[in-house]
Design a protein that fits this description.
With 422 residues, this protein is of the alpha/beta class. It is built from eleven helices and 17 strands. Helix 1 packs across helix 7. The N terminus is likely disordered. Pfam families: DUF1501. It comes from Pontiella agarivorans.
């Protein structure tokens, strides 16, 4: 719809807020809010989460569980790290120098071997069910812990897939605010130069007058939710904290360190800026791991550079002890390497996850596989991983929350924190 508030062909402030509200709130599907008494009782904790999601199924054998000299391991060599006795793929020379800040879980196991179902399980801790959508870890954290910086969204996802679960059955305002391109930040969030401050406020007041009659006539939770999110967006636009979304304020050397030409690397840089500014949960997605017909060397080296830069940066800035960093994927890849292409098919029986920061015990390997085929020791399920992250963040993981349909849910379902990690 055209609006004189912005030029034809350009998104204006109102359009920006509307789009964000629609994507984050799902207006029209029964939005509702947290009880104020519950919000006041939220625990006071500053633990944060950066969740790096490798979409498509990251090969464990070619990354964090190499088996050099075997047919399963193929041509990939293993290299030493700064922790004696721990080796990872040769594609991770930068991460090898940060191994003391990380733990590799080599005994992950999933019940889902298809992308959509595996992606859903890794993001929610629950197998998909046709009757309900479950929340992500970020949304659970918003429910149980709330924002740290009231001026910024508490939950953000960078480059999400089209099937991202957001808040699930929880109040929609707890869902992640999506950022499409880290290099562009939070787009259309500044007042156009050709609209002065008075004109801007006049437009907002006029819009409020028009909308008030609609709100009175259709007094529904979804409409109230939309208005609240709209008001928060206006507050953010007028806040100095909006600068947190601008990675171009970083030095050229810092951008190069993360991978200047890498969208994922710049996403990790943005994640660090947001965490530093008081955003509680940030997810960054790196796609392209569905490597049926190729060796994922390029993707692995991209992850290596960004992950190492992020861990060192968080450590240097005093943020690592309060920030949990997770590298996760929906499943691994088949140990039976395709000799003609060096690709691998889906494999849910065994794969790897990396975790560090936030009080996690690091510099260790948890679990093992029998050359990548099956979990040979200390099986860890995806609900276990969620329970571990939730516990490390300070969430009451066993606290039951009822969905609108009257069904009980909690963080990590029936999972239990992984021994030796927290």
């Amino acid at each position: 719809m055209n609006n004189p508030f912005y030029k034809a062909g350009e998104l204006g402030r109102r359009s920006f807020m509307s789009r964000i509200a629609k994507s984050a709130l799902g207006v029209g599907v029964g939005a509702h809010f947290i009880n104020p008494a519950l919000a006041a009782a939220l625990p006071n904790t500053d633990k944060k989460l950066i969740f790096l999601y490798m979409a498509g199924g990251m090969s464990h054998l070619d990354t964090f569980d190499p088996h050099p000299g075997t047919k399963e391991g193929g041509p990939v060599k293993a290299i030493g790290t700064n922790v004696d006795g721990i080796q990872i793929s040769e594609f991770f020379p930068h991460t090898a120098k940060q191994m003391d800040k990380l733990t590799v879980i080599r005994s992950m196991y999933s019940t889902q071997g298809a992308h959509q179902q595996g992606n859903y399980l890794m993001h929610t801790g629950y197998d998909p069910r046709g009757s309900i959508v479950h929340p992500t870890l970020g949304s659970w954290s918003m429910l149980h812990q709330g924002k740290i910086n009231p001026a910024l969204p508490g939950n953000i996802v960078i480059a999400p897939g089209s099937d991202y679960p957001y808040a699930g059955f929880l109040p929609p305002e707890l869902g992640a605010v999506p950022i499409g391109d880290a290099g562009k930040g939070l787009q259309y969030s500044k007042r156009p130069g050709w609209v002065n401050e008075q004109q801007y406020h006049d437009q907002l007041e006029l819009a409020n007058v028009f909308d008030s009659r609609f709100r009175e006539k259709y007094s529904q939770r979804s409409i109230t939710a939309y208005q609240k999110f709209y008001d928060e967006a206006v507050t953010l636009m007028e806040s100095e904290d909006l600068a947190a979304f601008d990675i171009h304020q970083e030095t050229a050397a810092t951008k190069v360190k993360y991978g200047e030409k890498s969208k994922f690397g710049q996403g990790c840089l943005l994640a660090r800026r947001l965490i530093e500014s008081g955003v509680r949960c940030v997810e960054v997605t790196k796609g392209g791991w569905d490597t049926h017909a190729e060796m994922p060397e390029e993707k692995a080296r991209d992850l290596d550079r960004a992950l190492a830069a992020l861990m060192q940066d968080l450590s240097d800035r005093g943020l690592l002890e309060s920030t949990i960093v997770v590298v996760a994927t929906e499943f691994g890849r088949n140990p039976e390497l395709k000799p003609e292409s060096l690709g691998r098919d889906h494999w849910a029986k065994a794969f790897s996850t990396v975790i560090g920061g936030g009080g996690i015990k690091t510099g260790q390997i948890i679990g093992a596989t029998d050359r990548g085929h099956e979990v040979a020791a200390d099986k860890v399920t995806i609900p276990d991983l969620h329970a571990t992250i939730g516990t490390a963040m300070g969430m009451p993981i066993k606290k039951v929350v009822m969905s609108d349909s009257g069904r009980p849910f909690n963080v990590g379902y029936k999972g239990a924190p992984v021994p030796g990690l927290i």
